[in-house]
Amino acid sequence: MSYGVRFVVDFLERKLGKRVAKQILYITLIVFGIERKKIKEVLGISDVTLCKYNAALRNENLESIFEQNYNRPQSALEAHREQIEQLFEVEPPATRREAALAIEKLTGIKLGLTQIGKFLKKGGSKAAQLGSCRVKLIQIDKALS
Fold first, then answer.
1. pLDDT tens digit string along 99-118?
2. 136 and 89 share a domain?
3. Who's near 1: CB < 8 A, 6+ residues apart?
4. Lowest CB count within 10 Å: 22, 44, 50, 66, which one?
5. pLDDT of residue 44
6. Has residue 81 got a pLDDT over 80?
C-alpha cells in the first residue's frame, strides 16, 4: 500500500474502528473496479464476510453492512445478580468454591470456578476480597482467644 492509502486506512481505523474502516474501504474498492479476490486479500476478510458485503451492495442496503452486531453472550446469572450481591453482603464467601455453592443453592445454576470468578469480577463484586478478609479476621479472632 502506498503512503497515502495507508494514511487513509489508519485515519479510518482510529476514527471509526477497524471493522467499519474495512467496510468503507471494501465499498470504495468495489466502486473503483478492483477485483473481489484482490480486495479480500488486501483487507484480510473471509469469504463469508465478502458474501455479506456483496449481498448488501446488490440489495442497496448499505446500512446493514455498518450494523455492529457483536455476539456478546450474557451469563445466566445476570438475572440473579442483585440477589447474589445481597447474599454476599450478609455472608461473603471465603473462596470461589464457596461462592459457587452459594450461587448454585440460591439460583440452581451450576458454574465452574473460573466462570464464578469472572462473574464476580465483572460485576465489580468484592465478594472474594471480603471473603478472604473474613477468613483472616476469623483466624485472628481464634489466635486471640
1. 889 999 999 999 888 888 88
2. yes
3. 9, 42
4. 44
5. 82
6. yes
Do 81 and 138 sit in the same domain of this protein? yes
Query: Which three cell numbers, joined as nine digits, stand for 4?
Result: 497515502
Contact yes or no for 97/91 (Cβ under 8 A): no
Helix (H, G, I), strand (E, B) or coil at 74: coil
Pair 84, 137 in one domain: yes
Joined grid coordinates for residue 68? 455492529
Determine the Cα–Cα distance for residues 124 and 122; give it in Å rounded to an integer.
5
SS3 content of the chain, % helix, strand, coil (to 5): 75, 0, 25
Residue 10's Cβ-side half-sphere holds a number of Cα atoms within 13 Å equal to 7
From the CB of residue 84, how many other CB atoms can be counted at a distance below 10 Å? 21
Helices 47-58 and 18-31 cross at an angle (nearest 10°) of 60
| pTM of the predicted structure, to 2 decimals | 0.45
